[in-house]
Amino acid sequence: MINFLNLKKINASYAEELKAASARVIDSGYYILGPEVRTFEQEFADFCGVKHCIGLASGLDALVLILRAWKLMAKLQDGDEVIIQANAYIACVLAITENNLKPVFVEPDEHSYNIDPAKIREAITAKTRVIMPVHLYGYLSPMPEIMDIAREANLLVLEDCSQSHGASLGDKRAGFWGDASAFSFYPSKNLGALADSGAATTNDEELDAMLRALRNYGSKERYYNLYQGVNSRLSEMQAALLSVKLKYFWQEVDNRRSIAERYLAGIKNPLITLPQVDRSEQHTWHLFVIRCQQRDAFKAYLHENGIETIIHYPKPPYLQEAYPEMNHLSFPLNEQIHDEILSLSADPSLSDADVQHIIDTCNAFSG
Fold it and tell me: Which residues of the chain have pLDDT under 50?
């Protein structure tokens, strides 16, 4: 079986350095918010081209705490609206509702699957305060246009970069564009830790200070609490491991891009719709997502031929049982996309033979 993502094989490439980093943390005696976290925060801020990176326990926490900080800074209040594409992962919606804000869903772009700026304009009301573009699959949303809309309407922009580490528009990477950005370092991400981990990035000094307090029980000084915070701290161990992984980030992305180029050139089956991107050189291919009207049959066929695939995601957030009050909503294009999408492996450790087998098997599918 060709695994969708073989993390054991990927991390084995850097095993000695990962083990050395782990030993360094164990031997240091610093385990919470120590030198490893500070080092990685600076490295990742530089990587994104921003002033501040705040290491957190997860990408979800990054979204939640950014919105909470903006409320404490009097930039948001209960009931304000956040515009988001309807095919976002449920974590984005959880962060919005956790803060007593209202998600306002819009249809995604049919080709990129990212948020459609035209739909953003249509959705703005007197209660709109935030645009949350979710950069899916390793491809940036049209951020110049989104930032223009935000400036015109005096809105905040929160980028969800959990699938787009290193993706860029021109020379500006994910995490650079918005007023703040959230990243996940979940192990399967292009920059993945070995446990749940995340970060927020920003150029806003006040937001940086607020997030650093919120992640640590609302405290800037130990035992003195300014805010009702949480415990959401990137661990020293994961920070050390992420610093190792960051060194090899572009090597893995180059492999992903090579695989994607072979898929785009080699898969020629009228039953399969390939990704349509106009900036492939700036795509980091976290996921290679195709569409097929016979998706379930196609998935079963690939499995029978030794190819593991994943559906990202089978059901939109507004149709989940967790949100019965939203279940009446309908976004036809989005629901069609959810019924047809299937992710092929973009595992950077795939062999040439594995990639060719996937291409040949896709081309042999007849419905």
Answer: none
